[in-house]
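hey so u asked for the seq, here:
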Amino acid sequence: MPHSAFRPHPWHGLSPGPDAPRTVTAYIEITPFSVIKYEVDKASGFLKVDRPQRFSALPPTLYGFVPQTYCDRRIAALAGTPRGDGDPLDICVVSERPIDRADIILRARVIGGFLMVDDDEADDKIVAVLEGDPVYGEAAALPPALMARLRHYFETYKLEPGKNPVRIDAVYDAERAYEVIRAAMADYSAAFNGAP
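ran it, structure tokens below
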């Protein structure tokens, strides 16, 4: 089995997975226990402190990104926005068992997503379930209460008095999520591998 002599960069050095877009590799940056917003440092690949969570809301699921994806012009075209947010594609992963640490990778089965716009930039959130999870592993959709909790978190996590740069324009199914993942993989290839 091939291996790296050095730790690969989570964004550039890991694969999105052989079954992408249906089942993807997810690199987890924060957990439902995180009161600090961590984010991968794009230059080094280490987790860095982005900011403390502003208010009392904590992320309701594991949260990270799909490696070798990028939100650029194809993602913007799907969202109908002027541009993508210039980050890897975000993913929320549901697990019945609590996972209390970040800086891990896992396999996740994609079931849907949110078309989120943040300051006029496309910032989709893919929704997935932990592969093999005994409760959610075979689910085709999440319970409405959990989807509402996720939506509420993203609609309010940057909220300030008199200002909210975030809106969710749509909730979509697995087929649309696959299209979004393919577009983000193509945006990555164009930006980093010289593909058209």
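The first helix runs from residue 73 to 79. The beta strands are 23-30, 36-40, 47-52, 62-65, 83-84, 90-94, 104-118, 121-122, 125-130, 166-173.
lmk if thats what u needed
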